[in-house]
Structure formats: C-alpha cells, structure tokens
Amino acid sequence: MSCSFKRLSRCECHEVAFEEILRYSRLLGTDDLNSLMERIGFGQTCTACHCDVKALLSEQSREMVDAELEPASVVAPNPRFP
Ligand code: FES
After folding, report:
1. How far apart (Å, rounded) are the C-alpha atoms in residues 73 and 82?
2. How many domains does the chain have?
3. Position 82 in a domain
4. Is residue 57 part of a domain?
5. Which of 14, 34, 40 should be mutated for ligand 1, with most atoms under 8 A from CB?
6. Contact partners, residue 30, CB within 8 Å, separation at least 6
7. Contact yes or no for 1/51 (Cβ under 8 A)
8. For residues 21 and 36, what is the distance between their CA atoms, to the nearest angstrom?
9. What is the domain extent for residue 31?
10. For residue 70, how far is its CA from the centre of ligand 1 (angstroms)?
C-alpha cells in the first residue's frame, strides 16, 4: 500500500505517534481505524494520517499472523516414540 510521497510517523494534527497507535492496537486487540481513533483521539482533523496508519496496522496484522504460523520451537523427542 502506497500512501503519500513522505510517510508520516505520527498524526500531526493530534500529535499522536504511530508507535502509540500500534501499542494500543495490540493492547486492545483491534486494528479497526475508527475504534482506535475514538479511543486514542487521533485522525479526526485533516485525515492525512489515515492511509499510513491503515498500512501500519495491516503490516502489524500480517506480522502477527506470520508469527502464529511459525512452527513451534523444537519439541524434545518423546522417548516412548523413537
Ligand atoms: S495528520 Fe492525523 S488528522 Fe491530520
């Protein structure tokens, strides 16, 4: 997803860093932009940050899914089943 020439790192209008938005997203277990905007209070003025926030939330969700699909760490062999 490509949003703007220069990717933002925070909601400039409300001075909320994207890191904070991602932290709340993980904490609340949601990547819904509207829910996060209401809870945190960003993105309600010019909306220029919406595209970048959506892209970051999407990347975070993909990373979380990928992590869940990683094979479990090596399991010790069961001596009963050589
Ligand atoms: S930059 Fe987020 S509302 Fe303006």
Report:
1. 19
2. 1
3. no
4. yes
5. 14
6. 36
7. yes
8. 7
9. 10-68
10. 36
For 19-81, the three-class secondary structure string (H helix, E strand, C coil) is HHHHHHHHHHCCCCHHHHHHHHHCCCCCCCCHHHHHHHHHHHHHHHHHHHHCCCCCCCCCCCC
Per cent of the chain over pLDDT 70 is 84
Selected residue with higher pLDDT from 4 and 66 = 66
Q: Output the CA 18–ligand 1 centroid distance in Å.
A: 11
CA distance 54 to 32: 9
In a domain, 40, yes or no: yes
DSSP 13: T
Length of the chain: 82
- For the entire predicted model, the pTM comes to 0.76
Tens digit of pLDDT for each residue in 19-36? 999 999 999 999 999 999
Token reading at 62: 């993909």
**Domain contains 3:** no
